[in-house]
Amino acid sequence: MHTLRAVHTSDMPGPLPDGEPVPGDGSLPAAALTDVGARGFGVYVHVPFCASRCGYCDFNTYTASELGGGASREGYADAVLAELALAARVLDNPPARVDTVFVGGGTPTLLDPDDLARILEGIDATWGLAADAEVTTEANPESVTPRSLQRLRKAGYTRISLGMQSAAPGVLQVLERRHTAGRAPQAATEARESGFDHVNLDLIYGTPGESAEDFAASLAAATGAGVDHVSAYALIVEDGTRMAARMRRGELPYPDDDVAADRYLAADAALGAAGLSWYEVSNWAATPAARCRHNLLYWTGGDWWGLGPGAHSHVGGVRWWNVKHPAAYAARLADGVSPGQARELLTETDRHTEDVMLRVRLADGLPLAALDAPGLAGARRAHDDGLLDPAAYAAGRVVLTLRGRLLADAVVRDLLP
């Protein structure tokens, strides 16, 4: 079963990686600035606040009791705008436009809609939003109302991604979600009625205690809500979470790969029957226009600046990440210092590896011409094993079959040195 998650590369779970120091002024090597945005340019905004912590969550988020001094929701937009001003100084050869904005978390909609509007206005004033820019915010279903959704839409947000996870009360309880089983589809309907162009529902499958019937009901509820995008991810249990501790104590069983594979097949069948087609291993959309352009920018090697604590950025082959705690983040910016904790300069080998890892997961696939001789031999083996689409292979592309999607990680390993 595939295990690579299509989570935001700007907010990966767990500890931050090592790397070389980021200069105090945030400056980038000259070579990184020569063609910014040639493959598209996006802005990710991390909002690290949550009303409560779900038992499976290992992302860089904080409840009110975990924040401590020096950070607050009320002053957060100002800190983000301070980093944006720093970004404008660093990118003195700026992108032609901002193609996508994605506000993730955490629970971005715990901020007042006026703050989310100010952040978007700041991005537009700094670099200019494209006329057709995709602007997404994540939200928990219980954190939005018809009125707040209308205010977000008026502010320029065009897409919303709601954390549904499941329609089964028992599964929601195990995941420690706060919303009721019916709230996510209701919030999706409210978002559509508020004028959002695109609405996504996130599902998690393979939760301990989830039955096939539970997941079928979740799929039916998601498709019945009239959304044009669904993301479905296998539960991954991260070390350090409450769920991991419960599993170590024997209170919950560990996820089962065979069950996860069955759930994935059920998702693909149900979503396909509802008119949604896969375009990335864990994502289905009703039309090409409904695909998440921001994530596609990540997956196809675009540039983006990640604003906020723990956010990752990538510009011109340089990747860097900010300090994780909101108080440390705000303090650095108040001192006029970059919040970047460390960075890495990607080699050509690094970039090739990531390109293969990510593009293989896309329905558009990867050109065979992008592979070296060992990779081509691996592609031939994958084709002969029924993991690659024969017609696409004959046309010179690596495209996964349904069985190949279940074994995506294994295919990737066979294509790389």
From TrEMBL:
One of its GO terms (molecular function) is coproporphyrinogen oxidase activity. InterPro entries: Aldolase_TIM, Coproporphyrinogen-III_oxidase, Elp3/MiaA/NifB-like_rSAM, HemW-like, rSAM, rSAM_sf. Keywords: 4Fe-4S, Chaperone, Cytoplasm, Heme, Iron, Iron-sulfur, Metal-binding, S-adenosyl-L-methionine. It is found in: Cytoplasm. Belongs to the anaerobic coproporphyrinogen-III oxidase family. HemW subfamily. Residues 35-277 form the Radical SAM core domain. Gene3D superfamilies: Aldolase class I. Pfam families: Radical_SAM. GO terms for cellular component: cytoplasm. GO terms for biological process: porphyrin-containing compound biosynthetic process. The keyword Cytoplasm applies. This is Heme chaperone HemW. Probably acts as a heme chaperone, transferring heme to an unknown acceptor. Binds one molecule of heme per monomer, possibly covalently. Binds 1 [4Fe-4S] cluster. The cluster is coordinated with 3 cysteines and an exchangeable S-adenosyl-L-methionine. Residues 1-26 are annotated as: Disordered. It comes from Krasilnikovia cinnamomea. Its main location: cytoplasm.
